[in-house]
Amino acid sequence: MITVIGSRLCPDTMTVLDELTKTEVPYDFVDILSGLDELRKYLSLRDCHEVYSEILGTGRIGIPCFVLENGNVTLGLREVLKKR
Predict the structure, then answer these.
(1) What is the pTM of this model?
(2) CA–CA separation, 27 vs 50, rounded Å?
(3) Which of 24, 29, 33, 63 gets the highest tally of CB atoms within 10 A of its CB?
(4) Residue-wise DSSP of 19-62
């Protein structure tokens, strides 16, 4: 099962969740704005993972983010869907 990290306030996150539901891809959802613990974990991932190298310093948040079953992290829904 994949983990989707995002926010219910983010239109891109909500679009992704709808697409995953439509294509019957099972997922867990972590809302980074549901508590400080979730936000801290996400910021730690974002600050250290190479997938964010292109967006750091741009003002973008970097969500939705996907953590695949094998532990790989991606920002691309296409990569998630092609693994199915």
Answers:
(1) 0.92
(2) 23
(3) 63
(4) HHHHTT--EEEEETTS-HHHHHHHHHHHHH-GGGTTTTTTT---
Q: What is the pLDDT of residue 56?
A: 82
Domain 2-82 carries which CATH code?
A: 3.40.30.10
Each residue's pLDDT tens digit, 5-55: 999 999 999 999 999 999 999 999 999 999 999 999 999 999 999 999 988
Domain boundaries, the chain: 2-82
3-state secondary structure 60-75: CCCCCEEECCCCCEEC
CB atoms within 10 A of CB 21: 11
